[in-house]
Amino acid sequence: MKRILLLLTTFMAGLVMVSQGLTASADTTPNYVITTDATYPPFDFQDKNNQYVGIDQDILKEIAKREGFTYTLKPMSFNAATQSVTSDQADGVIAGMSITDERRQVFDFSTPYYKSGIAWAVSKDSKVKSLDDLRGKTVAIKTGTSGANYALSVQKKYGFKVTYFNDSETLYRDVINGNSVATFGDLPVLQYSIKNGTQLKVMNPKDPFEAGEYGFAVKKGGNAKLLASFDKGFAEIKKDGTYDKIVNKYLDASASTFTGNKANSTTVWGILTSNKKAFLDGLFETILLTVMGIFLASIWGIILGIMGISQNKFVRGTATTIIYIFRGLPMMVLAFFIYIGLPTAIGFKIPAFVAGVITLILNEGAYTGAFVRGGFEAVERGQMEAARSLGLSYGVAMRKVIMPQGIKIMVPSFINQFIITLKDTSILSAIGILELTQTGTLIVSRNSQGFKVWAIIAVIYLVVITLLTWLSNWVEKRTKA
């Protein structure tokens, strides 16, 4: 048991070290990790070639080229992106982030690179005419945005309720479907989405509320060199007209220029063919996470299960405590703790993929440990007594008599846990892992075809789960033969 524990610990540590090594730059060129919310067109989104584009991304790319640094882009939800910077998992964030006094307490901001205003929008067939009509109704807002801040500031005055979303497309769909009656957001973002086919109408296009400014941000007191490079590069592109070209490129052009939303690309087949690479990449990441999660969580779960039936009270208590803790923690909370919270305590970065695998090991392993322990305990006590009466030690009796019978009892539970692990990988999109669910979110933010994209994602999951179930049933029959 000690050898297995040592092997698992060494493997996990090696996984972190290898990932750290792979991300290290081979030369002296500065390389930074930059986070963004890639569901925020026209500032941050994926184009029809699955490249990250937008006003923010073009500005960053041009500045990096002029200032001689490289960067690795990490797309995730806005809140996760900002927390990645404060926990030193990322060096900076550019995501249409409004500069506020509250944020200045934890971030250092660049020179403002865009001035915007807040607008509010309703569905095209809405009967809402003024803010007074929102009284008693629900308004959808996106967490962490200036639109959300403004909505909350006038909520009491106009008497509406709020519901929160992490991505823009889901928020818009909530309003279109009538679950919410309105939303508040940055005017250019709303206008771009409407140009891209979103069935909303802006109520105050010529008179936006509370103009604000966007800025590139780093952790307060950190990455001064990166911030200085951004400011210097921004001053140059502003002076020579490059900045205006970038802004006009996205605000003046048709959305289909970047998204490829032509008639044939809005069909199911068109979406599949135009996003084939993205779907395949997302599926590969999901399968890789699932295989590694299943394998390592099974090892960890078996160890916990064996510990749970140990004759030593301390060992049994330790296993029970571990299972209790990690079964009780919501998986998303655990993922955020490992990826964002833990690096602050241990002093070095944990790559998102590694954090995701560790999350699966701890969470799925706890559930596995519970049914492994139950499987061993389900073997008749007389089996152990008979083995001991024949002179076998406790350890030998466990390996030769109890474990083989217990494993056969556990096979259905292992099959169920495999399927659960596959589905749970979708939760890891919250920390920026580009698996199948996150892939769907990025595609929907680009083409606004939510129903068709999520139907495709659902079918892919069902196919993979069906194949996994067939394989598991085959293994179950083999073990019973």
Average pLDDT number: 88
- When the domains are counted, the total is 3
Can you tell me the residue ranges where pLDDT is under 50 for at least 5 consecutive residues? 22-26
Q: What fraction, in percent, of the residue positions are helical? A: 55-70%
Radius of gyration: 26 Å
Could you say what the CATH topology of the largest domain is called?
MetI-like fold
State the CATH architecture of the largest domain: Orthogonal Bundle
Number of DSSP helical runs: 19
* Molecular shape: elongated
Give the N-to-C terminal Cα separation.
Answer: 29 Å
* β-strand number: 13
CATH superfamily of the largest domain: MetI-like
| CATH C-level category of the largest domain | Mainly Alpha
Strand content: 5-15%
Largest sheet: 6 strands, mixed
Written overview of the protein:
- The protein is an alpha/beta fold and 481 residues long.
- It has 3 domains: 29-112 and 215-258, Periplasmic binding protein-like II (D-Maltodextrin-Binding Protein, domain 2, 3-Layer(aba) Sandwich), CATH 3.40.190.10; 115-212, 3-Layer(aba) Sandwich (D-Maltodextrin-Binding Protein, domain 2); 274-480, MetI-like fold, CATH 1.10.3720.
- Helix content is 60%, strand content 12%.
- It is built from 19 helices and 13 strands.
- It has helices at 2-23, 55-67, 78-86, 101-104, 146-158, 168-176, 187-195, 224-239, 242-251, 256-259, 268-274, 276-308, 313-328, 331-346, 352-378, 381-389, 394-424, 436-447, 450-480; strands at 31-36, 45-46, 52-53, 70-75, 92-93, 107-109, 114-123, 138-142, 161-165, 182-186, 200-202, 209-214, 217-219.
- Strands 7, 8, 9, 10, 11 and 12 form a 6-stranded mixed β-sheet that branches.
- A hairpin with a 5-residue loop joins strand 2 and strand 3 (52-53).
- Helix 14 (331-346) crosses helix 15, helix 15 (352-378) crosses helix 17 and helix 16 (381-389) runs antiparallel to helix 17 (394-424).
- The longest helix has 33 residues, at 276-308.
- 43% of the residues are buried.
- Residues 22-26 have low confidence and may be disordered.
